């Protein structure tokens, strides 16, 4: 698995994501500064969690206009994989690579806790090893994770089977309990929960491993 | 020239900050407040004198960066 992780000023889960990739694949991902204009030759790009540009204007708004994002768009258009985690999901909606937007949590509080997710869609390289309805425990850590789309857009993305994960117990007010989404092709996925924070560590088994293992099985 | 841009969540989009402000005003005794929608004001200093052109360009800036039109609406006012 050849992966690149985009580093924005204010990213703070970039190294956790890199550790997760190393743990599962044995290969160190390339860390790519947001000012770069060209990605290295990779199969997977991760937009990591954090607070790029301090969430100025809107979470993900500035990062979505960074110079590297043109090539990330191009990478996705060619069918290669993009995973946006938390702030990365916000960036993907801001740039229009995924529909909808992430609003402040309905309760106006930062939420940092493990949540139960139901796997809704298994026809993506990120979720191919899961079964529909399988439940994963993966933590969230966000202030702006309240997924919103206008009713017609919401109906459209449900009809197109774009919902990848739903919360079992909605923590933030997201419409239809949406925790993760893909594009129609399934090669771009955004999710608010942090799989890189749920890696197996000694005897503590984490469900994050399985998401990265699914990618390994697809990409080799 | 100066442009004043108002950005606000579209009607129907949940505004938890507005709700929190409404709650705080209520607890201060302003019982006449039945709803609050909050937003932001962005002031731009501009070169040039052509108001129509400036408005067109600032609206383009709103579409590209200043507002997220999935959830927000904006208005632009050009001043001397």
Overall description:
The complex is a heterodimer of chains A (220) and B (80). Chain A is an alpha/beta fold and 220 residues long. Chain A has 6 helices and 11 strands. Chain A has helices spanning 14-25, 61-64, 69-77, 87-94, 151-159, 208-219; strands spanning 3-7, 30-33, 44-47, 81-85, 101-103, 111-119, 135-142, 146-148, 163-167, 178-182, 188-191. In chain A, helix 1 (14-25) packs across helix 6. The radius of gyration of chain A is 16 Å and the shape is globular. The model of chain A has no long low-confidence stretch (mean pLDDT 96). Chain B is of the alpha+beta class and 80 residues long. Chain B is elongated, with a radius of gyration of 16 Å. In chain B, 14% of the residues are buried.
What's the short story on this structure?
The complex is a heterodimer of chains A (220) and B (80). Chain A is an alpha/beta fold.
Unreliable spans of chain B are: none
Distance between the termini of chain A: 6 Å
What structural class should be given to the helix and strand makeup of chain B?
alpha+beta
Report the total helices of chain B.
2
Share in helix of chain A: 10-25%
Please trace the helix and strand order of chain A, writing H or E for each element. EHEEHHEHEEEEHEEEH
Question: Biggest sheet of chain B, strands in spatial order?
Answer: 2-1-3
Distance between the termini of chain B: 5 Å
Break the fold down into its secondary structure elements and pairings.
The complex is a heterodimer of chains A (220) and B (80).
Chain A: E1 3-7, H1 14-25, E2 30-33, E3 44-47, H2 61-64, H3 69-77, E4 81-85, H4 87-94, E5 101-103, E6 111-119, E7 135-142, E8 146-148, H5 151-159, E9 163-167, E10 178-182, E11 188-191, H6 208-219
Parallel strand pairs in A: 1-2, 1-3, 3-4, 4-11
Antiparallel strand pairs in A: 5-8, 6-7, 6-9, 9-10, 10-11
Helix pairs in contact in A: 1-6
Chain B: E1 2-9, H1 16-27, E2 39-45, H2 51-66, E3 72-79
């Amino acid at each position: 698995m050849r992966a690149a992780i985009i580093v924005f000023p204010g990213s703070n889960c970039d190294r956790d994501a890199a550790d997760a990739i190393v743990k599962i694949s044995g290969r160190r991902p390339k860390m790519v500064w947001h000012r770069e204009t060209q990605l290295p030759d990779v199969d997977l790009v991760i937009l990591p969690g954090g607070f790029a540009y301090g969430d100025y204007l809107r979470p993900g708004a500035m990062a979505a206009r960074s110079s590297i994002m043109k090539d990330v768009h191009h990478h996705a258009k060619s069918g290669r994989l993009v995973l946006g985690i938390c702030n990365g999901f916000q960036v993907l909606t801001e740039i229009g690579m995924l529909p909808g937007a992430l609003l402040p949590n309905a309760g106006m509080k930062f939420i940092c806790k493990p949540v139960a997710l139901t796997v809704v869609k298994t026809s993506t390289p990120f979720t191919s090893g899961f079964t529909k309805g399988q439940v994963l425990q993966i933590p969230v850590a966000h202030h702006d994770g309240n997924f919103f789309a206008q009713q017609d857009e919401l109906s459209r993305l449900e009809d197109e089977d774009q919902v990848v994960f739903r919360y079992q117990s909605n923590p933030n007010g997201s419409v239809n309990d949406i925790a993760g989404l893909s594009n129609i092709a399934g090669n771009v996925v955004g999710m608010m929960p942090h799989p890189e924070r749920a890696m197996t560590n000694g005897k503590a088994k984490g469900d994050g491993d399985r998401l990265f293992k699914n990618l390994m099985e697809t990409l080799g | 020239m100066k442009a004043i841009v108002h950005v606000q969540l579209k009607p129907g989009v949940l505004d938890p900050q507005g709700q929190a402000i409404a709650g705080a005003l209520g607890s201060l005794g302003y019982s006449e407040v039945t709803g609050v929608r909050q937003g932001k004001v962005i002031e731009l200093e501009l070169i040039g004198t052509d108001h129509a052109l400036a408005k067109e360009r600032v609206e383009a800036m709103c579409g590209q960066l200043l507002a997220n039109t999935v959830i927000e609406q904006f208005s632009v006012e050009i001043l001397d």
